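Deviation from plan, reported transparently: zinc ion complex.
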Amino acid sequence: MFLLTSLLSDVECCVPTGKTVMLVLQGSRWLLQGHDVQVVSTDYISRAASRMIAGQLGMALSADPTPPPTPGSVILHLYDFTNREADVQQAVTDLLARVKDGQLHVLLDEALFGGSDVSGQRLTTLVARLAESVPGLHLWAAGVLHTDIPPSLRPEPLTVPLRCAPSVLREVQKAVDRYGGVHNYSDSGVPAPGDGLRVIRLSHHGNAHTGRWPAECRQCGKEIAAELRRLGVGSGGNSLPNSPAPLSYCDVFIITRSSELQDDIEDDAGRVTSRASGVVRGLRDEGLPVCVLGEQDLRHNWARCERDLHDVAVAATDRVTVTDWCWVQGLERRVVVMLPGRHKEDDEGGNDEAIDVDDRLYAVSRCSTQLIMVDVPTVTTATSTAT
Ligand SMILES: [Zn+2]
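Because the crystal trials were delayed, the predicted structure below was used instead.
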């Protein structure tokens, strides 16, 4: 029996609103009440968000001018439910060892329960085991598919946007309007300070551009770099109105949808065996420091990607992050560049309309201030012109 189990429902039934922020606020409340907070990441999709939550909770505690005499601690747990079945039992063991006075306080972000995904099924098992074993389980989860909610959790859809400018919300709204499974935004009742900035549009089109998608294109990388320079990124300045802090490289996400995105792949001797994606090379041509989080990088160098995910989550290193959208769920940046693309599985029946909805709900929604969208010419055949 739960004392309290709440769930902040998700993009499948809810628009992107700032659910991770709510987890941080709830975690802060528990800490100040003296409870230890267990931040649990069960696979790579929740890594960055979980690391960010743990980092922000730690900072919130140290910044409190009047901390309680015995505040709680933040414990970050990292598992790989996708590849290691034994991690489920390990997580149960680790978390039950943290029960104090019959209570356990757990935060789960990007918690994709159940479904056909093995990681989601194992996550459902974890929550069921905790519910059976801990009478005083306080568990908040966000980023949950509405179709597979464990029965012990109570859905609380959030529809009030907490962070995006109206101009960005309108781009997300285009997905909401087309996708019947998403709750619409509610009026926050508080007028926005302004409409936000005009969306900047670039185009992956013209003689110098190569490849079917912008992630493959060196010229796109150069043109994105020029646009970021124009905004003042990395110069110690900032051309964004109503946003006085200088724009750093780490304020920028370049988000795509690609199974092929990668940095240079090296062998054990340090020789490059496969060059970085075109957009990455174009950005570096223009002198921008870049961090790449792609599926190929994860496959070839998981340890480096774990470090980079941590760096990105807490903005520890001043670099522009180029990433597939699935690695940065729960995070946001002041500047987001959206590059259309395709995953491998999309070629086996991917629907352009559904992909555009995903791009807006998962990638565009990472932006708080300045959105840059790269348009791609429509093609009528599936042939690729990649070079
Ligand atoms: Zn291009």
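The chain has two domains: 4-156, 166-375. We consider this an acceptable substitute for the interim report.
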